[in-house]
């Protein structure tokens, strides 16, 4: 291993001006304390980080636990966790929260006016933060910490561009950029200082490069030039080149911001982010046995596929994010298999962290950003109960015990529907009958430019064992045919206007009779007689509804009405009018109402609650990503359907599938059985399968003939 003196990495150009002039003075007395303090220390005992889990038997197997979305983090750009607290920053403030998103505290309101928070760490009851910001003539920033329960802010470094830091039980090691960029590179210094104050030490200054830095307690590892990792003793001494040159057949060098230590090994991204993509490499800490483990992030012209957060490790794996791919990946530390994705379809994931049995990440493109996790190990850990940020109505029943797993029999022989111009849309139940809606995909008449063209909906009814067409209905292009329903003993096709706020429906009779007006008069102005009055109304109208403003939804279920918006005090609220009484519920700005087969769901920071018997009752910690609908199977199981289907077990979701001939299917329930239908639009066929609990009744023959739809107009 080549040995380097501290001066061996001097830049070629002697004309580079230091941002801070001479070598900065490393703290030699107790660090200066800022007056910024936003929360006093809490007297209650703080939660402890989870214990390390036991290894998994097959490191190449995909995790099976569902992804949990823990909480939102408005404006967040940086995140970390130790399994006891969640910590994030929007670049200015540093916020700490319990693992369920509750007990939120702003620990630091504004770290510094001149720089942006770009790194966080949790250690020994302290929240550490690194800030930097580059300008035309230099770079500003600082490194400091605050207690995890609040208190004074301590700055441990001189002002400057802190590009990386690492913690030991008693020291902090950091790199500080000390010159503006030139053709020769960037000059940096490597320093170590006691965490609680005392004499500091310059380990190496200046050297070319300097981004991430890490330590194993004996050596400090850092990037010192193109494709070169170096280390220097933590107590001071000569620097050593760990890696010198390319590894394997990868094009490019190490990425200095994304490498980590694990046991006796170094893991680093290697390659070129905008030409060949980056691979993950492994070599021992003394620079031996270098090898490539597999692809890590794909190439992109701008290099934007690289995560902002670091590589992280636990006892078995190395983890990182691929933001543009929407994926979180891992690779076994022993190289048992190539890297593979453990979370996909996420909204720009980054800032991966591991703690206990879970991997965590932040989704930066979610609105607002959110924190999610996935369980990787089977060790039991207490379930996270999302924070109740609002008081639910009293008297709500406690959640029932988790229902048993579904015992649905194999499906009955499928009903088959076909039509030369037909595409399947939905199945609905009304008046004890089964209906299918098929959208005619035939030629559409000319229409105004950019105006949606009208289309035809065919309504088919299951009569005996055969579907028969009973109605052909013309629907305007901006409307959606939703279902068949029964009102006052008559059947109607329900058509919805998706562009209207709330739930604007109207009813088209399937037999003789007049069209019914949309319920709640929702075609009227939001200040109509069936809506909450304006906060400025004088005198206030006679109504049981409290005044509200800025409404953005008002679904209805049976005789209960719901409104979500802002109350007259400027706070977000849900107003419920049920059993002739109105109640206001305080919510977070990101909370939503969802009208599902199951009923009205309130999705918020306090979890997912279902409106039943005049009150909201919490049923789940969250909803799986991309949930389209929620329903209750005949055996009591609550099912969330979307790109993947999940069944509710307690307050968590487990993967759930039916043995249908397609991976993609839609499920509805008539209360006695589940109906799953899968369509193939290229041949215009829908297969409709009926799943009955405990066994299917195959005594009656099922007609497999098709119901041909009328051709043309």
UniProtKB/TrEMBL annotation:
The keyword Signal applies. Keywords: Signal. It comes from the Bacteria. Residues 46-56 have a biased composition (Pro residues). Residues 1-24 form the signal peptide. Residues 22-45 have a biased composition (Low complexity). Residues 22-57 are annotated as: Disordered. This is Uncharacterized protein. The lineage of its organism: Bacteria, Pseudomonadati, Myxococcota, Polyangia, Polyangiales.
